[in-house]
Amino acid sequence: MSGQNISSQAIIGERVRVGDAVRIYPWVEIGDDTVIEDYSILGHPTAYDRGRTVIGPGSTIRSHAVIYRDVETGPNFQTGHHTLVREGTRAGIDLRVGSYSDIEGDCVIGDYCRLHGYVHVGRGSRIGHFVWIFSSTTLLNDPLPPSHIASPVTIEDGVVVCVSCLVMPGTVLRRGVFITAGSHAHGEVPAGGVVKGTRGEVISHVSLLANLESQICHPWMRHFADAYPENARGRIEELLASILDSRSAYRRRSR
Amino acid sequence: MSGQNISSQAIIGERVRVGDAVRIYPWVEIGDDTVIEDYSILGHPTAYDRGRTVIGPGSTIRSHAVIYRDVETGPNFQTGHHTLVREGTRAGIDLRVGSYSDIEGDCVIGDYCRLHGYVHVGRGSRIGHFVWIFSSTTLLNDPLPPSHIASPVTIEDGVVVCVSCLVMPGTVLRRGVFITAGSHAHGEVPAGGVVKGTRGEVISHVSLLANLESQICHPWMRHFADAYPENARGRIEELLASILDSRSAYRRRSR
Amino acid sequence: MSGQNISSQAIIGERVRVGDAVRIYPWVEIGDDTVIEDYSILGHPTAYDRGRTVIGPGSTIRSHAVIYRDVETGPNFQTGHHTLVREGTRAGIDLRVGSYSDIEGDCVIGDYCRLHGYVHVGRGSRIGHFVWIFSSTTLLNDPLPPSHIASPVTIEDGVVVCVSCLVMPGTVLRRGVFITAGSHAHGEVPAGGVVKGTRGEVISHVSLLANLESQICHPWMRHFADAYPENARGRIEELLASILDSRSAYRRRSR
């Protein structure tokens, strides 16, 4: 290994492997068994002094990633390549963020969330647990750009946002909402709602979605157990029940 | 600092800070008080020999950026991380280009423009002053791809293009135009026009836009003074007056 | 050159130029006359051991690129900057993949294909010869995300997919199909079909497309000879004839 630029004040856990040409700033703390790949930067300085950057144990920061100062993640944090996480963000257990994704800063992200590639999370977004956001989706935060009005997005537990969606400023996606690929979501989408199209219309309830070929029905949590560790099973069952409950409210609305 | 690869022929101003593993080619000239972050390349060679790369004073080139040969920027140029600027581009004062954005080459960009992240500016685009382009927007240039017909976009002063828009080849956005998120613009959009939807329909005039909660009205220049230095105030007032003037033409058209 | 990290077990051809701070793993084989630019990684390890990474002669891997283990490309492979190619992908002659593009893995790509920037190719996609995919287009593969149902896209020879399209899971684009900018394609699109809009409607045949100003008609292969070497001419003529043939089937359908 050569060209490393690791501050002697940084706190590096046991069995941490650091790649080539990595820069680690003094205010960084890296948990045990973490891998930091080549050409990455941890603890990138901010305009004003802020807090420490804490990466949980068992994490993997892939190459060319940039994690700013004042970011804290839970254990098993994983980034793709060229991923960017700005200052002030807090993330729970097992967050995965794909390649070329940009978490803009001051975001709160819960446990077991997965963001794929090219996902752009606007500053101040609030994301719950067990949320999936697929590639090229943007969470906006400025209702009349360019303005100083911050109107970030709120996404509750178990939400799925498919590829290339726009989640407009101030949108609230209640638990278990499903946004189909290429759609725009706005306003408050009730629990379990399925949104399709650029008008953000709620067209169905997530429990009614099925793949025609495979007959597999959503919610996905029932048939996707391997994505989560054994000890998350209880929380998943509770969430699943809560999303299925919301179906009766959906039926009343659609009559 | 280690692993630097800076040509002794490059002209480096006073108080320039250069990061780790940066490559600077011989034909590069960097103004005073500029910061070049880690893993960046300045003056990347082109297929055929071209001119010098000149970065204005007070600039910040963030990590993993690639600036080609034959690029000239004014003072206070700022890039995000992983930003790409291709050969032949000329930019004015205070240009900011966000992370993962790609300015394809031979573009002309005026003063005080701000391009956010994932913005893709097609080769040969012409962009005026005080222009904002939000993330994931693409300026196209090929009307029947793949062809050899170059039909780049022209964007006049004070235009705002929101998130995830397509500005189709040959589009002309007159001064003060506002393109809402997820829209497609084409043809000539008259001054102050508000475009919404994938058909590129002009639905309003920018002076009539307002945020319902805050009662703040566009044009944004009136309430966004802190984005610009004091000495740009005169030019902003002139531009604002000119955009407001265009409202009467809009009214005549819509009758 | 400094900071290189090149395995002595890697097989490096004649006249290969390797940039600064490049990592090359032991299972990599690089053809003659290839250029590997700064801050790139060749043969990035995979979760499970896989095969060799073979880069054909005459290739250019631009800066900040990451090519995984078990990738094989033909001669004259070219990447943009920050390009990502995951494990298991096989590519033919003269593949070009633009900056920030991500080929997810286990893809098969034919000869003379060109993918522009920010193109996201889902795992398992099948792409024929002489295919163009323009920037920010996504080929999806999961019909009910997140699921374990893999339903990748098939794209036949001579297809053109313009900027910012979604090619939905399981889509089959027959030879010569043309997808206009911002459209969504799904199902099976017959040979030579022109798709426009987010409903994926086939609105015309590619031989009827023309640029109004220049009177240049598609198929583009007739007027784009310089994009391909002399010895590909025969294959192009054959493909062109086959696409023009499909026009009669289109006419019958549209009556």
Question: Your description of this structure?
Answer:
The structure is a homotrimer of 255-residue chains. Chain A is mainly β. Chain A is built from 1 helix and 30 strands. The first copy, chain A, has one helix at 233-254, and strands at 5-6, 11-12, 17-18, 23-24, 28-30, 35-36, 41-44, 53-55, 60-61, 66-68, 78-79, 84-85, 90-91, 96-97, 102-103, 108-109, 114-115, 120-121, 126-127, 132-133, 138-139, 154-155, 160-161, 166-167, 172-173, 178-179, 184-185, 188-189, 193-196, 201-205. In chain A, strands 1-4-7-10-12-15-18-21-24-27 form a 10-stranded parallel β-sheet, with no helix packed on it. An 8-stranded mixed β-sheet of chain A has the order 11-14-17-20-23-26-29-30, with no helix packed on it. A 6-stranded parallel β-sheet of chain A has the order 13-16-19-22-25-28, with no helix packed on it. In chain A, strand 29 (193-196) and strand 30 form a beta hairpin. Chains in contact: A-B, A-C, B-C. At the A-B interface, loops of A face loops of B.
Task: Work out the number of β strands of chain A.
Answer: 30
Given as residue ranges, the uncertain stretches of chain A (5+ residues, pLDDT < 50) are none
Name the beta content range of chain A: 25-35%
The oligomeric state of the chains shown is: homotrimer
Largest interface: A-B, 30 and 40 residues
- The neighbouring-strand order within the major sheet of chain A is 1-4-7-10-12-15-18-21-24-27
Our measurement of the CA-to-CA distance between the termini of chain A, rounded to an integer number of angstroms, reads 66 Å
Characterize the overall form of chain A. globular
